[in-house]
Amino acid sequence: MSTRTGTRGEPVTPANPAVDTVDIAALLERGRDMSAPVLRAAVDRLAPPMDTVAAYHFGWIDAQGRPADGDGGKAVRPALALLSAEAAGAAPEVGIPGAVAVELVHNFSLLHDDLMDGDEQRRHRDTVWKVHGPAQAILVGDALFALANELLLEIGTVEAGRATRRLTTATRKLIDGQAQDISFEHRDRVTVEECLEMEGNKTGALLACAVSIGAVLGGADERTADTLEAYGYHLGLAFQAVDDLLGIWGDPDATGKQTWSDLRQRKKSLPVVAALAAGGPASEKLGELLAADAGSNDVDTFSEEEFATRAALIEEAGGREWTSQEARRQHAVAIEALHGVDMPEKVRAELTALADFVVVRKR
Amino acid sequence: MSTRTGTRGEPVTPANPAVDTVDIAALLERGRDMSAPVLRAAVDRLAPPMDTVAAYHFGWIDAQGRPADGDGGKAVRPALALLSAEAAGAAPEVGIPGAVAVELVHNFSLLHDDLMDGDEQRRHRDTVWKVHGPAQAILVGDALFALANELLLEIGTVEAGRATRRLTTATRKLIDGQAQDISFEHRDRVTVEECLEMEGNKTGALLACAVSIGAVLGGADERTADTLEAYGYHLGLAFQAVDDLLGIWGDPDATGKQTWSDLRQRKKSLPVVAALAAGGPASEKLGELLAADAGSNDVDTFSEEEFATRAALIEEAGGREWTSQEARRQHAVAIEALHGVDMPEKVRAELTALADFVVVRKR
Q1: Pair A210, A69: CB distance under 8 Å
Q2: Cross-strand bridge partners of residue A126
Q3: Segment B141-176, tens digit of pLDDT
Q4: SS3 B61
Q5: Do A172 and B150 touch (CB under 8 A)?
Q6: Do A160 and B156 touch (CB under 8 A)?
Q7: CB atoms within 10 A of CB A57
Q8: Nearest residue to B196 via CA among B53, B45, B327
Q9: Closest-CA residue in chain B for A116?
Q10: Are A337 and A231 in contact (CB under 8 A)?
Q11: Residue among B112, B168, B176 minimizing CB distance to A149
Q12: From CA A25, how far away is CA A23, in angstroms rounded?
């Protein structure tokens, strides 16, 4: 069976000509446009002041309560949930409650993670706990999680029950992943396998759910849903590998994060972990530097040059190249999984194009 | 129709002789014993260190990880969930997943509320955020909430879907109630109606769910479930009125809280709100004192006498008596609701006896 990507970093070359004609921007916009009104109506159900706090988080209003047209993120998940319904032969509309439920769970996790991690900025704006305080970040996160389940279960069908079960399982993995991520901070060494497991939980599981939830709501059987989840899970790992690259070498103007963002936060992300595992002089030098950093508070006052030194060592030890190849490996496995599901060729081309987009994106 | 209680504070006099023979301790113990192994197995599913943190919260281990035989609370909810199954003619075992799911949601809310409220003690022990840090309190709370839904949905029946929907609705109300409770702290005045609405959300909704969830799992129709919820909701309001009395005048040895606990926390609980609404010299004097307290930090250093003065004014203004009567009013409405459901007389007597227990308890 031919795969569309190599494992040694050569460019992605589409095997299916239809993939080239997919308009990714339009696909993402459709997901955003079709789910947005339902998402807003769901958030409007929250009791004050939680509705306002949630509206701030989603970028619909600013900190003073004035209407805003914030950056709601890339909206890959809603696009996937609608395609998921179409993959099962249903209308894209069937996937909308799934798209909204997944977005609610994703944003529940962002609200809580930003507070736990002490992150002050998200999508170029102050995080909710900075603006509205920790209690509101906890409370509104809880409310969005509950709302996600409520939205699905009030459909009242057997399919909705199955969809909610998949969402709940994904949410538990998401929480496991955050627990692992936090525990890594307190450890000297993390293996590549542990890092991949954490990222699979933290990013793969919910993306997998986004790709199965529309199909389940559209009546797909469990095997089809599992296969779509395999695509989504590996797509999530590819997505996260790219995120880890952007977290060190991304353009701040594009990502909305600081330069060397993940190094500032001493994240044991894939490039770091892979570089430390690689062995050799650069790897050892990096290990010594990071061990010294771990025991000091100086990282907060590092110059750009000190971060650049660490980034260069990660690259020299092969961590950047390994992570880049890992993104392509996961991309290939994701595409491979799509072959296991019978679906309209148009939808297959769109899911393939979305996977390509995830790997080449700059933000 | 005869009710078993007056509305003017006379003692509860059972109309149903069978109620007198109910062994409340045995009923609570049954709920605890039958649900405990399933609860423990559910918590064991959590990834480290969340399993350990949850075990500490439930009192199974101490802060050093040594086995402990902690006070797991009164266990009214599990007892109700098993009776709920029996009310629908099912075996008590049918209610077990419901009992455990409700306990998980209850404890999710305790973990998050203790952190949001800054409460350092619960059940005579340091709270989770004090021992394991805020991040673990958030994370383990999230995990328990997800686990509750997972446990019910993996049953895979239509009934389980309906049960999960009721639990999710109750959880949303719980969160609404906590949001209202927090907002009250920043307000000078709260009406009795607002306070009752908040307590209905924060305490009534989940107790209502405990009383319906076993029946729903046992195949009860929606009307029966709604009627059982009415009993549980008003039982919850009675429970909370008693809690509010214990929060001011409770015996610290019995409650595990400090003397004048709710006054120390400046809680706008029912006795306070009712006293302020009553009018008259004591009410006005109380209003002046509390308004002055609100603007100062001296409350933290108040002597026992200063709290005693405020408690005496609440009592003089009629807040204590009103709340005591309110507990009996809600108790009567709860018992009344039971008449709307056809159930075995033994179960009716047990639900009635549990309602009596809730109103006369000292902890």
Answers
A1: no
A2: A121
A3: 999 999 999 999 999 999 999 999 999 999 999 999
A4: strand
A5: yes
A6: no
A7: 28
A8: B327
A9: B135
A10: yes
A11: B168
A12: 6
Rounded distance between C-alpha atoms, residue B231 and residue B333, angstroms:
7
3-state helix, strand, coil in chain A (%, to 5): 70, 0, 25
- pLDDT by residue for chain B (363 residues), tens digit each? 344 444 444 445 455 667 888 999 999 999 999 999 999 999 999 999 999 999 999 999 999 999 998 766 789 999 999 999 999 999 999 999 999 999 999 999 999 999 999 989 888 899 999 999 999 999 999 999 999 999 999 999 999 999 999 999 999 999 999 999 999 988 888 999 999 999 999 999 999 999 999 999 999 999 999 999 999 999 999 999 999 999 999 998 888 778 898 998 889 999 999 999 999 999 999 999 999 888 777 777 888 999 999 999 999 999 999 999 999 999 999 999 999 999 999 999 999 999 999 998 877
User: Which residues from chain B sit within 8 angstroms of residue A135, using beta carbons?
Assistant: 116, 182
Residue A147 sits at the chain B interface (C-beta within 8 Å): yes
pLDDT at A106 over 90: yes
Cα separation of B311 and B271, whole Å? 9
Question: If you measure CA to CA, which chain A residue comes closest to B117?
Answer: A135
User: In this structure, which amino acid lies at residue A243?
Assistant: D
3-state secondary structure of B121: strand
Considering only CB atoms, B154 lies closest to which of A165, A178, A182, namely: A165
Distance CA A327, CA A278 (A): 18
DSSP at A122: E
Whether B197 contacts chain A with CB within 8 A: no
| Burial class of A260 by CB neighbour count within 10 A (0 to 12, 13 to 18, 19+) | buried
E-assigned strand segments in chain A: 121-122, 125-126
Q: Which two tokens stand for residue B307?
A: 């709290």
CB A87 within 8 A of CB A73: no
Question: ipTM score here?
Answer: 0.92
CA distance A63 to A257: 19
Q: What gap in Å lies between CA A362 and CA B169, rounded to an integer?
A: 40
User: How far apart, in whole angstroms, are the C-alpha atoms of residue B72 and residue B100?
Assistant: 13
CA atoms within 13 A on the CB side of B110: 20
Q: Residues B323, B207: contact at Cβ < 8 Å?
A: no
Strand ranges for B3-126 from DSSP E: 121-122, 125-126
CB B212 within 8 A of CB B85: no
Distance, in angstroms, between B105 CA and closest chain A CA? 11
CB of A323 within 8 Å of any CB in chain B?
A: no
**Chain A residues 104-143 within an 8 A CB cutoff of chain B:** 108, 112, 115-116, 134-135, 138-139, 141-143
Rounded to the nearest angstrom, the gap between the alpha carbon of residue B3 and the centroid of all alpha carbons in its chain is: 24
B141 CA: distance to closest CA in chain A (Å): 9
Structural domains for chain B: 17-360 (1.10.600.10)
Contact A343, A87 (CB under 8 A): yes
Test A179 with B147 for CB contact under 8 angstroms: no
Q: How far is B282 from B261, CA to CA, in rounded Å?
A: 21
